[in-house]
Amino acid sequence: MQGFSSREIYRIDISDKAIEEAGKRNPDYLFASYGKPLADIYLAYTVFLHLNDEQLMEELETIQTTYFIIAEGLGSEWSNYGMGKPPAYNRNDYSIMEEFGYVLVREIRKPYKRYVGNVIAKNKNTDISFLLWKKVK
């Protein structure tokens, strides 16, 4: 990321094993286990699609931030309704954020190279959406 040194940004994961491995591979970077820190901006990159609606609500109740960026492929056609490994609960939108006092400021969609032209993506949305939300209440 331009403008920030490797020691100014924490890379956070819910998996302690992933944090340990990432630290070994990238000793110049800061890593931490997920502990819901207070922050001006919170980024959930392809994370919330693995939570069902109840889990997502519980998670959103615990996060305190001014700006929220959710980045993932939208479209319920990707959902396996928790029956796969990993479970996927892809949503068509994140209007649920409004219940927590957020308004959608901007949405950017870009082709998600991982899925463009991929056989498993046939007849599915292959964009990744970046949704920027701002707390207003």
Please explain how this structure is put together.
The protein has helices at residues 16-25, 53-62; strands at 10-13, 30-33, 39-45, 65-72, 102-111, 127-135. The protein has two domains: 1-35, no CATH class; 42-135, no CATH class. By secondary structure, the chain is an alpha/beta fold. The longest helix has 10 residues, at 16-25. α2 (53-62) links the parallel β3 and β4. 7% of the residues are buried.
Regions with pLDDT < 50 over 5+ consecutive residues?
Answer: none
Q: Could you state the order of secondary-structure elements as H and E?
A: EHEEHEEE
Strand order of the largest sheet: 3-4-6-5
Count of DSSP helices?
A: 2
Question: First CA to last CA: what distance?
Answer: 30 Å
Mean pLDDT: 86
Q: Could you estimate the helical fraction of the residues in percent?
A: 10-25%
The largest sheet is: 4 strands, mixed
The 3D shape can be described as globular
Instruction: Let me know the number of strands.
Output: 6
Category from helices, strands and their pairing? alpha/beta
What share of residues are in beta strands?
25-35%
Radius of gyration: 16 Å
The domain tally reads: 2
Provide a compact summary of the structure.
The protein contains two helices and six strands. The protein is an alpha/beta fold and 137 residues long.
Question: Topology, please?
Answer:
Layout (H helix, E strand, L loop, with lengths): L9 E4 L2 H10 L4 E4 L5 E7 L7 H10 L2 E8 L29 E10 L15 E9 L2
Parallel strand pairs: 1-2, 3-4
Antiparallel strand pairs: 4-6, 5-6
